[in-house]
Design goal:
alpha/beta, Aspartate Aminotransferase, domain 1, Aspartate Aminotransferase, domain 2, 7-stranded mixed β-sheet, about 15% strand, transferase, amino-acid biosynthesis, proline biosynthesis
């Protein structure tokens, strides 16, 4: 079938909860993807950082195929031989004390919400049903009902209420606002180290360090949502490392499987996850042997092939070269590692979408967010010559 035929079927039979670019992809390898008509594109979104290791990494694929022939699912009613090894390797890599495996990123966030509330009641002594969690405005932590309840995005919230209470939103990057928002009932502060969906918004230098100090002093659990920023995306294994801190709970997902399978995890100190007792939380698929085997290999190639270091080096180069582009529509170019955004001035004709559509025709796939921001987040295996090729196309798109 041709592109327009696939699009017609999707428009007729699918829910219209996405507005994708009109390209039908059917193959991927490394940083490249191909459509049904044979056209090749540089993927500059990486499935929202789920394929940091590149599309169809052969070693992760091999691990998945090998495990799928032995055992795929046991449920957590029984033990499997892959889960303890994932625990061991994740804890050694991230200095965590406990791991709770889930499937999607949103499930990891929901798990964290439950766990910090439980900690608040059983350890901190917050009165029952009075726990408060502080979040940031313009956050994105997922799409479940609880999560959109503390979103400040009207499009995500409208006509989906009523929502669960217990959340307080403050400005992102404002440590004084965090301090002021804390009450005796505050159990946690949950924040993205860099706000991805908001448009790669980077907080002021030292913000996370101040947040860590404030949370420690006030006996508040610091939860970092590293589902997009983690596993090498910002040029460090975890983005918290830029500020030299450790969160009490860290949420990872997406690239934890290299894009092969939904895998997420809550990484924690003993104090929080150690409170869970049998029957209080779980997931049929969470921690299944196929997911664990895939995640173990995804982490292994990330480290052995020095993708984190490559993200730092190539990200610095890409960002530096992008900043040389001068155009009256460009308001700001910002980023960290291979998590980069070009923000256009509000009112720019066609907005970011028109630039993304131009780049698609030139062989680059990227995505707009919030009307006037273009995100660039290629797989961490990208090389300098690939970036140079992309820069030529990006400059051309703006010159037109």
């Amino acid at each position: 079938m041709k592109t327009n035929e696939y699009i017609d079927i999707e428009n007729r039979l699918g829910a219209h909860n996405y507005k994708p670019l009109d390209v039908i992809l059917n193959r991927g390898e490394g940083i490249w993807v191909w459509d049904v008509e044979g056209n090749r594109y540089l993927d500059c979104l990486s499935a929202y950082s789920a394929v940091n290791q590149g599309h169809c990494h052969p070693k992760i694929r091999e691990a998945m195929m090998e495990q799928s022939q032995r055992m795929t699912l046991t449920s957590r009613a029984f033990r499997n031989d892959q889960l303890p090894l994932l625990y061991q390797e994740l804890c050694a890599l991230t200095r965590s004390h406990k791991v709770l495996p889930m499937n999607s990123g949103a499930e990891a966030v929901e798990t964290a919400i439950k766990c910090v509330r439980k900690w608040g009641y059983e350890t901190k002594g917050v009165p029952e049903n009075k726990a408060e969690i502080i979040v940031c405005k313009n956050n994105f932590h997922g799409r479940t009902l609880a999560i959109i309840g503390f979103s400040t995005d009207d499009n995500a919230r409208k006509n989906f209420g009523p929502f669960a209470p217990g959340f307080k939103a403050i400005p992102f990057g404002d440590a004084d606002a965090l301090e002021a928002a804390i009450t005796p009932n505050t159990v946690a502060f949950m924040v993205e180290p860099i706000q991805g969906e908001a448009g790669v918004i980077i907080p002021p230098a030292g913000y996370l360090k101040k947040a860590r100090e404030i949370c420690t002093r006030n006996n508040v659990v610091l939860v970092l949502d590293e589902i997009q920023t983690g596993l090498g995306r910002t040029g460090k294994l975890l983005a918290e490392e830029h500020d030299g801190i450790e969160a009490d709970l860290t949420l990872i997902g997406k690239a934890l499987s290299g894009g092969f399978y939904p895998v997420s995890a809550v990484l924690s100190n003993e104090a929080v996850l150690g409170l869970l007792q049998p029957g209080q939380h779980g997931s049929t698929f969470g921690g299944n042997p196929l997911a664990c085997a895939v995640a173990r290999q995804a982490l292994k190639v990330l480290i052995e092939e020095k993708m984190v270091e490559n993200s730092a080096n190539m990200g610095a180069y890409f960002l530096g070269e992008l900043k040389k582009i001068e155009h009256p529509a460009i308001k700001e170019i910002r980023g960290r590692g291979l998590m980069i955004a070009i923000e256009l001035f509000e009112g720019t004709e066609g907005g970011a979408r028109s630039v993304c559509e131009k780049l698609m025709k030139m062989g680059i796939l990227c995505k707009e967010t919030h009307t006037y921001t273009i995100r660039f987040a290629p797989p961490l295996v990208i090389k300098k010559e690939d970036i140079d090729w992309a820069l030529d196309k990006i400059k051309k798109a703006f010159s037109e």
